[in-house]
């Protein structure tokens, strides 16, 4: 996955790319912060409410091609929870 993530075609094709490593146990808020930090490390997120984090993620991804790698996840539930906050295709 790492090789594909940094492939020049992939870099060119996707407006936004992010890589997050998830442990077997994780906190949904921390996961959102990790995703947002991976796509824009200049954001100040620690003081944001959960609702604000969801809005920031939605605005960041809306109408853009994005690739977010959720590495080392133990179940599809991680993605199911996270995709609730992403814009519709």
The string of secondary-structure elements, in order, is: HHEHHEH
Radius of gyration: 13 Å
Q: How many helix segments?
A: 5
Mean pLDDT: 85
| N- and C-termini, Cα separation | 22 Å
Main beta-sheet annotation? 2 strands, parallel
Kindly state the number of beta strands. Answer: 2
Measured as a percent range, the helix fraction is 40-55%
Defining traits:
5 helices, 89 residues
Would you mind describing this structure in some detail?
Residues 2-85 form the NB-ARC domain. This is NBS-LRR resistance-like protein RGC9A. One of its GO terms (molecular function) is ADP binding. With 89 residues, this protein is α+β, with helices and mostly antiparallel strands. It has one domain (2-83). The protein is 46% helix and 13% strand. The protein has 5 helices and 2 strands, in the order ααβααβα. The chain has helices at residues 2-5, 8-13, 28-39, 50-61, 77-83, and strands spanning 16-21, 66-71. Strands 1-2 form a two-stranded parallel sheet. Helix 3 (28-39) runs parallel beside helix 4. The chain starts with a helix and ends in a 6-residue tail after the last helix. 9% of the residues are buried. The model has no long low-confidence stretch (mean pLDDT 85).
């Amino acid at each position: 996955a790492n090789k594909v993530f940094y492939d020049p075609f992939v870099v060119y094709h996707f407006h936004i790319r992010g890589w997050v490593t998830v442990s077997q146990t994780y906190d949904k808020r921390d996961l959102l912060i990790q995703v947002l930090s991976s796509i824009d490390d200049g954001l100040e997120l620690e003081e944001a409410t959960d609702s604000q984090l969801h809005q920031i993620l939605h605005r960041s991804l809306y109408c853009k091609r994005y690739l977010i790698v959720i590495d080392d996840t133990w179940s599809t539930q991680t993605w199911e929870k996270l995709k609730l906050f992403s814009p519709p295709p």
